[in-house]
Design brief:
By secondary structure, this protein is an alpha+beta fold. The chain has helices spanning 2-12, 31-37, 40-44, 47-63; strands spanning 23-30, 65-69, 72-78, 85-95, 98-103, 108-116, 121-127, 138-142.
Length: 145
Amino acid sequence: MIMNLFHIFLFSSFFIDPTFFLGKWKLEKHGPITSVLQSEVLAELDLGEQFGIQNAAKLFLDNHYLEFRKDTVFWKDVESGENKVVEKSGKWHLIGDTLFIMDYEKIAAYKYLITQEGEDGFSQRNIYQNGQISKSPIIYSRTKE
């Protein structure tokens, strides 16, 4: 009996209620971008390349958000090589503690390991195609709009 209760608790603790995500979320911290900006690799690039990467990162960090509605998510991204902000949308769903986003414009699916941080925030970690999970979290807080 105790073992069954333990399994039920363990199993249910890995699931997040999808309605938790509905609404708009502001980016608070982007660990992977911060890691790149502080990396030795960036420091070894010429000043023009460093400046371009830093500007693209700032543009992304200043404009990024996620807005979840029913089965669609909206966000802003920075178009590679163009340094301009673009509106994006895709289908989203949860399986356990993993968020899947399918980009409508690209044939691409993104996977994130989710950690709920109370009712007003969550963090996610990229799950790469090889199954590795990013060490750096991306943290969002619910907007008050």
